[in-house]
Amino acid sequence: MAKIRLDSWKSIAEYLRRSPRTVQRWHADYGLPVHHFGGSKGPVFSYSDELDTWLSGFSEDPGTEAAGQNESWRARKRSSSELAGQAEEMWELRSDENLSRIAALYRGAIDQDPANASAFVGLANALILASLTGNMSSSSAYPRAAEALHRAARLGSDTAEMRCANAWLRMVHERNWKSAREAFDEILSRQPRSSFALSGRALLHVVEGDVAEASRCMKEAWKANTFASASNAFQCWTQYLAGDYDQALETIAQSRAGGESISLATAVEGLALIQTGPIASTIKRIETIAAAHPSNLVLQGALGYAYSSSDQPERAQAIFRSLERLLGKPAYPLALVLIGLNDRYQAVSCLEQSFAEGSLWSLGFRFDPAVKQLVGDHRFESLLRKLQAGRASHR
């Protein structure tokens, strides 16, 4: 039979009658013979006769990558694949409760098999989302995620999941809007119901100034995977930015009634309550929520803002001192309290730090009602221009 060259993951997968993800895992875990044009990062190709030879050996002994590999090596490979598989199943939920577990499973998979490219990609996605939802600092999460993707690329990975993770990093870490947009659009042209890619594209709509489209796109992301708690939290945030405070609160209430609880949504709840009427009528509710979630720093900042807006500056200053003592000094929560206390100079400095860190909140500065009183301040206006330009690099 003539030797046939297959010039993409898709064509290789079709030849083997498997999904592209399975074929990529076989390459990473078991040595499926796949080559690259122009070096390790170039497009992939494979030859049909090499695949046939490999597949016959794989069928007899699926754990054998090459002659001489021992049973211990095969066991570690199997363990790595099993751990990564568990993490992938949990990733579909993407809730506060399982993000750290997902990261631990992927890290365990990498420890068992440092050549497991899909585990590096999965770890990067988990780290990025942990930062966006407030479960991990961006200064810790983003460099780790970038390194994980770099290692996956060296292993020859070029999956949709990897391209999506790279797009997220370009948006939140590098602040390269154009590159992120192109990457998300390319992914969605092939996988229009990719929930994580839709969420990323929705946040880019916020940056681009179209919060109505951002909210619509985020709703599509939620519909694509209604069990992904993070998508629902992003949705209520875009509703808040669009000025639909009652709708944001209703989205949060429905989420909570469905058994979901995510720190990002709880933070948005506090912010939205501030905007729904006289602060005297909502501050008790904000206090109750903040008392139930003492580690939610944005919620604590929202409470400090509420205190200062209700002529309780001493209580606001007490929250500010408490936040300032924390390692890393959470920039956006501190800015909220300072805005309430009318300390505009320090507030803008904190917002600049929030932007530099690549926080989710900084993507919405143009529309965030909590910071609108800073409009006209020359430093804040400069920050908005930087945000709109999308050329600032993460430092």
CATH class (first level) name of one domain: Mainly Alpha
> Number of DSSP helices?
20
Run of helices and strands: EHHEEHHHHHHHHHHHHHHHHHH
**Sheet having the most strands:** 3 strands, antiparallel
List low-confidence stretches: 59-69, 391-395
Count all strands and give the number: 3
By secondary-structure content and strand pairing, the structural class works out as mainly alpha
The gross shape turns out to be elongated
- For the record, the CATH architecture of one domain stands as Alpha Horseshoe
Mean pLDDT: 89
Strand arrangement within the widest β-sheet reads: 1-3-2
CATH topology grouping of one domain: Serine Threonine Protein Phosphatase 5, Tetratricopeptide repeat
Portion of residues in helices? 55-70%
Distance between the termini: 56 Å
Q: Which range does the strand content fall in?
A: under 5%
Radius of gyration: 23 Å
